[in-house]
Amino acid sequence: MATNENLPPNVIKQLAKELKNLDESPPEGIKVGVNDDDFSTIYADVEGPAGTPYENGVFRMKLLLSHDFPHSPPKGYFLTKIFHPNIAINGEICVNTLKKDWNPGLGLRHVLIVSLWLGAC
Description:
Number of domains: 1
Mean pLDDT: 87
CATH architecture: Roll
CATH topology: Ubiquitin Conjugating Enzyme
CATH class: Alpha Beta
Structural class: alpha+beta
Distance between the termini: 33 Å
CATH superfamily: Ubiquitin Conjugating Enzyme
Low-confidence stretches: none
Helix content: 10-25%
Number of strands: 4
């Protein structure tokens, strides 16, 4: 398990900035939580989008950040069992945003919003 000591200062600074922004202006339908002892693991509760089979559900996910975030994408997992073509059996979120289309400028907000709208696919 990574701890804050394993993350470079520039990554911690970037995460602190993004997490502050998410706290002050959270995306609708998403609640974010972080372990103060380990910024490399971020949890979010994502409400199922209205008008989809996921409506009225709340889905727990986690993002695992590497030591070179934001230059490499986080790994995303749904901890709540969910059936979706872009979610692997182990809960891994399989979307291009977290793979070949990753761009360091996207940030955590974008990843969370993409995860929210998986249910609308």
